[in-house]
Amino acid sequence: MAAAERRAFAHKINRTVAAEVRKQVSRERSGSPHSSRRSSSSLGVPLTEVIEPLDFEDVLLSRPPDAEPGPLRDLAEFPADDLELLLQPRECRTTEPGIPEDGKLDAQVRAAVEMYTEDWLITHRRYQHLSAAYSPITAETQRERQKGLTRQVFEQDTSGDERSGPEDSDDPRHSSGSPEDTPRSSGASSIFDLRNLAADSLLPSLLERTAPEDVDRRNEAARRQHRPRALLALYPAPDEDEAVERCSRPEPPREHFGQRILVKCLSLKFEIEIEPIFGILALYDVREKKKISENFYFDLNSDSMKGLLRAHGTHPAISTLARSAIFSVTYPSPDIFLVIKLEKVLQQGDISECCEPYMVMKEVDTAKNKEKLEKLRLAAEQFCTRLGRYRMPFAWTAVHLANIVSSAGQPDRDSDSEGERRPAWTDRRRRGPQDRTNSGDDTCSFSGFRPATLTVTNFFKQEAERLSDEDLFKFLADMRRPSSLLRRLRPVTAQLKIDISPAPENPHFCLSPELLHVKPYPDPRGRPTKEILEFPAREVYAPHTSYRNLLYVYPHCLNFSSRQGSVRNLTVRVQYMAGEDPSQALPVIFGKSSCSEFAREAFTPVVYHNKSPEFYEEFKLRLPACVTENHHLLFTFYHVSCQPRPGTALETPVGFTWIPLLQHGRLRTGPFCLPVSVDQPPPSYSVLTPDVALPGMRWVDGHKGVFSVELTAVSSVHPQDPHLDKFFTLVHVLEEGAFPFRLKDTVLSENTVEQELRASLAALRLASPEPLVAFSHHVLDKLVRLVVRPPIIGGQIVNLGRGAFEAMAHVVSLVHRSLEAAQDARGHCPLLAAYVHYAFRLPGTEPSLPSGAPPVAVQPATLARGPGRPASLYLARSKSISSSNPDLAVTPGSVDDEVSRILASKGIDRSHSWVNSAYAPGGSKAVLRRAPPYCGADPRQAIDRSSSRTSSYLEGSSLAPPATQPRLTVQKLLHEELALQWVVSGSAVREAVLQHAWFFFQLMVKSMALHLLLGQRLDTPRKLRFPGRFLDDIAALVGSVGLEVITRVYKDAELAERLNASLAFFLSDLLSLVDRGFIFSLVRAHYKQVSARLQSAPNPALLLTLRMDFTRILCSHEHYVTLNLPCCPLSPPASPSPSVSSTTSQSSTFSSQAPDPKVTSMFELSGPFRQQHFLAGLLLTELALALEPEAEGASLLHKKAISAVHSLLCSHDADPRYAEASVKARVAELYLPLLSLARDTLPRLHDFADPWSAFTCLLRSVLFPFYFQLGNFPFTCI
Q: Which domains does the chain have, with CATH numbers?
């Protein structure tokens, strides 16, 4: 009953307080809840109105550098070393770079080599790690900070410890509540204890007279003695869900790897040992019906068996002696098999006859079959001597990897002697959309199983008519069935012992697929482990990071059934020819096992007495760096005589065919069905395909296709996409100036290349996603180069800025869609973020001028602004249009309406009429810059331009310059071009750019930073760093994007949220580069846009939430305190005594004086406070508006606003730059209006009904630590 009465009493108090609050608010407020107008005589300017900030740069210039003493001087301005340029060495996995040797490389290969070898170029903000965005205060960091805090010990705790010894401290019988500790007569015991206590020492100073100042000083010293440095470490960490400013640096691009498996081949033993046997390993995915790895060749023969082939072999390279391999699997599946194939030396007889001894004879019957074994050894020795260079299929088997992974931990399996290994490599592999697996893949992983040693005993003999991969997939699918037909076959008895385990993170003695030594490689004489190249079952979206240029040749089948004569033991010889002379066969074919590292020719296995053989062979070739029109693959078909006969050659050529590798500048890959010539090809055959019926040549089966072969390239040089190939070819032709040039059936000249290049730019959106992502760095670099350095043909500039910008927008969209599953919480693509952060750099120098020709400079003006600048190759007429003259400005309804109006104007090119935008100076939505109208970096440009900033351009075609005129050079600035093209872009392109605005914002920011760093412009005053026209474009762009945020918040809230964050980060980055007063004016203009929309918004809480996030991101800047001008004379003079307690002792004197307006303005969100401390004023204003009783979306805005302030306080508390007490005092000045906010919200600061409500806890988390920080404040006015 009493409890119920207390609850009723508490409710009554709450109702009274709430009524008083509403009465007070009703007197101070007017208008709807959607547009708060809280004001008073002390505030002057309503909180809903953003006050115009001070001119930041002028304020700093008006104060001498040494105006502030000691550590306060660092708060006055950004550090001189704030921005720096870093060259981060590119990580190279191998001890050798693996790039082609210096020589005559074409433009495409040269560009690829430069991209894969140059170091990362990073524009680094030295103190960015101290910002709230990159140094978050999380629960984990809070715990780390709490470890250094002194443990608080109270008198009650120490008294209990003194009574109980250490041996009794943990005994529950000696606890305070134990009955044994309580004597029978507590009163008598207390008296006894008191009499035995030692007397306290006297306090002689107790009656002495002490000045209040001395008391305050001693009290302050006592308070500071054990004061923790990081008070906020004792509080809960800020809410992670509200940390919209959180950022993370992207990981550098690295080579893609899937889950890696180490397979060691330990031994291979048969019942009889009469000849060498060679093994092949590869992975196959039955579900996808695809071979997912290249072949690994191993040789486990004894030295005596290897000696049988001594006549045909050279000294084996150590790379061909590998017996272990590392396979990579991007898409783990229960349908993956490790297929093991065995081959033997070719001998007379079909496969069944050759396998018979292995199936019949047993090792225990060696003595009984001694004569037969001797006869078999003698025959094998003869065949090895005569036919040792040829192989024939022998047997095969398969291991179901899912069974190994799932049962590797069972005790009946042999475990590896090294024990369990942690697959640390799985933590470092790059994840992307390739990690998306279906339900069947979710139960299969190759990353966490225990090593297992297997002994494979059953092999199946190969069947001559079923050697293709299609037949193999049928066998593998049948192996999973309980009633497998393969189990009815007689096996070839053997024992192959292999070890399967997760690959270690950094294996020693490892060779890359190009046979390069992977770090660490301690001893080059050690037996290597080979990395096996993966052929992923599905697309893998990852960029190329290293030079790789491999070609795989897969002969499938040959049909010589119509060929007359003794043509039965057929083999195919493969050669890579650099010309038509036999001596021009290049040693680029990788060796298999126990042979030389590279060979000039290779042969397929022979199927005995078969005119239509099938092949499973894989030839791996290292493509030369420069593939020319003369390079081709030559296939020569031989009949091999297994039985020696007098006058009969060992091998007889019976056919020829070839594949030209380069056609119209593209590498030819894919399946081919080729006709075979009976006669040797005539001279100059390599420039034609065998499909051309050359006169006087005889063809097998009437020139029909009888040989099926497939070429597959794994190359980081050749894109193998027609749209990408054409684009790269045209760009390189323009760079080299190699005209005329043949592109397919068209001969390109200087008069036609522009049209082809524009069409190629438009066709980039049709490129296949996988090669586009793989070559995304190349494509973006070329597009940037086209924007910054437009090609010059015939002495004239080809302006491709618009087309390149549109192509860039579509390429970014395609890459985003391809890597949708890999995007972070902000919707950023890690690949594109890494490109901007690490790989992007401004294009290098232009190609050198012709010898003896003087350079002719073209004014490096932005597109459509340079006077007299040709706009395209066809320049006939010039037309001048006005730009941002205020008298010509119009008020469009929207950005789309404005662009449509410009497009509809007769004779006006949209890309050159950006100045009619509503956001241009003089427009209806113009943002006035604080800088002078034309404070460009070059004073001459300001003089040349008139006040109306009229831009002109040339349209059509002009007369060609004289033939003797040298090549022109053009240099533009990427950030200027991006801003311009974005502002004037059409609806479709603008939509694509808005979807991924963050990328273009970051690209502009890095371009601006490189412009300052490389041009030695950091010492230039900020108002002179960038020309006025560029700042006007930035203003127009910010206004346009801000309008998109406002208009889309109710249509596409997710996009609006991303745009809002991207815009805020962009402005935050610009604060480190450009005029900060100009950026503050852009922020104010954005606030005004939002405020205007709030008047008619159906749900203002959404816009208020976005504005709060916008403010929090801006305030997360690492120099947030400096940006608030903490060292300006708005603050009152300091008191002689920095004590807080002295304020109390002098309260009567202070109260008797009239309050100074400058003093009172410090404690409220007054106009002067918000004008000087602009960002702090915005943040605290948001907090004040959110705390209003009738605020829209109160609960959500409460949490966001209070969390933002709490996060900043935590950041200041942990920032080592603010460790000094004087610096802390200046930081605390920025939050003095919290006192008045606390006074106004005092009725709600404690809820008697719910003392631990979320609102009160949030508010306390801000106010209480702030009160503690006031201990550092040196002013008596508190």
A: 31-63+70-75+1127-1272 (no CATH), 259-532 (no CATH), 549-715 (2.60.40.150), 722-845+862-1074 (no CATH)
